[in-house]
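Office hours follow-up: a student asked to see two folded examples consecutively, so here they are.
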Amino acid sequence: MPLFSSYFAKLKIYLICLASLITYQTVYAKEYNSLDEFRPMLSNEWQLVKHDRQRHIKTYTKREDDKAIRSFKVEGLLKTKLSTLTRVLMDFENYSDWYWEVIESKLIKQVSPTEYYLYLVHRAPYGIPNRDVILHAIVSPQTDTQNYILLTVKAAPEMLPIQPKLVRMPAENMTIKFTPLSQEVVQIEAEGYIDPGGQVPAWDANLIQRNAPYSVTLGLQRMTLQDRYLHNHRELPFRVYDNHNLP
């Protein structure tokens, strides 16, 4: 009997060790694969990051020759009217409801119906100070020869004094093109570059560049379904044509 007890005890120890080894290899493989998120892209051509076929969203990144942080691009189709989408974008005080990690947003200056200065505070990853940014946004409305709205955004870091406990972002620059394909579908095409400033690991910043564009596009789609925008008929500061490219 002691012989059998010794045998089963050894077998139990062996099985525990084997299970531990398998678990370790599985975890290691997952961690190793996750490093793909942090490896630098050697190509300066656009690389597909995510293709959500169900929601019709594609995101890309590429490595710029003179920058440590990658640029981003997003292409998508939103099921909404262009006027509804514009109302979401013009609601500057509520960007925290949909924009990437925004905890504060406000309009600080309106130059004209198509030119604005905005102030945003972004929540940073744990252990890193939050970021703030001043954005200079210029809208190029639709015309008889331009069926899309073009939004150009560029950081204006010197416009306001540096705020305590916040790091001022030197760049959150992008161009966004909104084209109505019908009265119920809008194509979005955006390219940009974000520099969080301060001391942030390049892999952390690049991870944000990979994930934020997709999250923002989903946020826009979600917001356009809310009654406060869907059934809002207040006049917009510039003319918007929901079916401008249709015969």
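And the second, which I mentioned at the end of office hours:
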Amino acid sequence: MGKNKIGIKNFLPHRDPMLMVSYITHINDDSATGEFQINTDCVFVKDGVLKEPGLIENAAQVSSAVVGQSFFEKGDLEGKTNTITGYISAIKKVTINQLPKVGDTIVTKTKLVSRFDTEGVSICTIESAIFNNDELIVACTLNFLIHEI
């Protein structure tokens, strides 16, 4: 998708204050990149920083876009064909080096590691890396279950 910014609200059931991605800036069949500007009304902000659960939720939301997009009609950039839901089925690994502050914009890059599809269900493993000012602040590997509803 290049430098286009896709509003993720159309593709996730999450809404503020649980929406942890502002835009998807890149997506293809095995990776996605998202941006999130941290503000004071975020449910995971405490003492001026985005806490660990918020970072994991951010990684999960960007990650789900990689596999979730295959459940949408091609070219649907408004989420009108959204018929999926997803769950983190396992947190395999998480390393958190730093907590970003209110006002920071973090960039999350994800890569599909494995995927198994059955009728209407995908089970997948995705690696995520979160950056703040080009510095790696989080690395994690998550498993997901994504299915049509």
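Two things to take away from it. The chain has a mean pLDDT of 86. The first strand starts at residue 6 and ends at 7.
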